[in-house]
Amino acid sequence: MSTDAAYPQDVAACHALLVQRDATVEQHNATIIQMQRELEQLKHFVALLQRKRFGPRSEKLDPDQLSLFEEPAEEAAQQEASSAEPAETVVREHRRRGGGRNALPDHLPREIIEHDLSEEEKCCPGCGQERTRIGSDTSEQLEFIPASLKVIQHVRHKYACRACDGEVARAPLPPQPIDKGLPGPGLLAALVVGKYSDHLPLYRLEDYFARHQVELSRSTLCRWAAQTAELLAPLYDLMAQRVRLSKNIHTDDTPVSVLDPNLPHCRTGRFWCYVGDDANPYSVYDYTARRKRDGPAKFLAGYEGYLQADAFAGYDGIYAGGSVKQVLCWAHARRKFHEARTNQPEPAHRALGFIARLYALERKAKDLAKLEEWNLRDTDQRQRFHAARYQFRQEHALPILDEFYTWLQEAKRDVLPKSPVGQAIRYALPRWDGLTRYCEDGALAIDNNLAERTLRLCAIGRKNWTFLGSDNGGRTAAILFTFTASCKANQVEPWAYLRDAIARIPAMSADADLTLLLPDHWLADHPKARRTWSR
């Protein structure tokens, strides 16, 4: 039987067979294209995992990278301009760290130990006469003295009338941080700083006190931490109220594992941070059992101003009323292009070049404040800087943003929607108003990195104590994290501040003004407690 016999002899039947085969080929081509897309996505996903596991975490990029992908005409014009006049190389000012040993602080106590020659050594070997002292050389050595514990005995004298055997009078006991409790203010402050600033789990603190021959169980320390948070709650509420008076608030959240007796495993709770502006420099934390919109909605109830956050959909209800304006983070938008740079280098680096130019302008604006020698802690000079930065952004940043927006619209048509660059563009374009709103006011930041840095306290602590024991423990941690983070933001030594606040609050009435105990106000009365943080 010949091969031609397998095909129909009728022309119409042949046409039908060809149409069927064309449809089959088209389906195969569509399947191949889909598989290629999935392969590209899987390669991108594997590359991300490898970079997160083995690659550098830095996302820095030279702002001149954009010139690699400019049009030939533009590039030729730039080369012609550069050949006509040599370009100047601008080197950012930096301070070179000198070598040698740093001087020891003057406030440390000095113990003088004198080293002298023996009587035999004082005799001159040449003539045998006694040598005369002509001076001395002094060198300093830094020594460590472990922290000490002491017992304070409160002796209350009693008086009675011998004539009539009347009522016995006894001197009152001053208000204590914990009623009828064992710890003093300094011990409670050390507990808070140890766990929520130095990130020591309670079992390590238990061992620390055991080395001083004092047995304090971790359950006792946990109870003291909760009672300290309850004592500081009115001051925490005042700080939260002051943060809600800010012109702009930075916020972000991070997960934390929470023990649940009803589950065989831990569930996920959330820490939220709310960072106030320069007039209200407090970092307030909140805890919620779930990542739901009711957490930020409850904390920010009644707030009017700018909210700098990520694109979490839970904030949409807050923006709906119009009293809160959305300010999105360019670091989040940039990260998506940065992750796509190995799969689609040309469009990804083109976008990264635009964003690098925006960040270069922000650095120039900060250099302007240094050039003018403005003290940003002073209210008037800070307002002058914000006005100058607003004008600078209007003149220089807005043209770059307009050019970037036009390029995004054009690139959207040239890339696949589900490709890495396509997803990055689909993230940026619908949120363009929030991404460009930072140009409306010089007090706003280009990104939300401030909130992410503030959440480092929770992230570092989470690696050490691993999980929370309950939701009540989460609320305790949120209050105490607020004080350690706010001390860091205001350059306040946390132990000295907390010891004073814990000692003074019990003696205050319920309607007392706690403003003087806010970290920045307290530092004004205790300037020696200022501390410069290394990180």
Could you walk me through the main structural features you see in this protein, from its secondary elements to its overall organization?
α5 packs across α6 (218-243), α9 (330-339) runs antiparallel to α10 and α9 runs antiparallel to α12. Residues 71-83 have low confidence and may be disordered. The longest helix has 44 residues, at 11-54. A 5-stranded mixed beta sheet has the order 5-4-3-6-7. A two-stranded antiparallel sheet has the order 1-2. The relative contact order is 0.11. α8 (316-320) links the parallel β6 and β7 (324-327). It has 18 helices and 7 strands. The protein is of the alpha/beta class and 535 residues long.
Secondary structure elements and pairings:
Elements lengths: L10 H44 L17 H13 L34 H4 L35 E2 L9 E2 L14 H12 L5 H10 L6 H26 L4 E11 L8 E9 L7 E6 L5 H6 L5 E4 L7 H5 L3 E4 L2 H10 L5 H28 L6 H36 L5 H9 L3 H5 L12 H6 L1 H10 L5 H19 L4 H11 L14 H7 L10
Parallel strand pairs: 3-6, 6-7
Antiparallel strand pairs: 1-2, 3-4, 4-5
Short description:
This protein has 535 residues and is α/β, with parallel strands linked by helices. The protein is built from 18 helices and 7 strands.
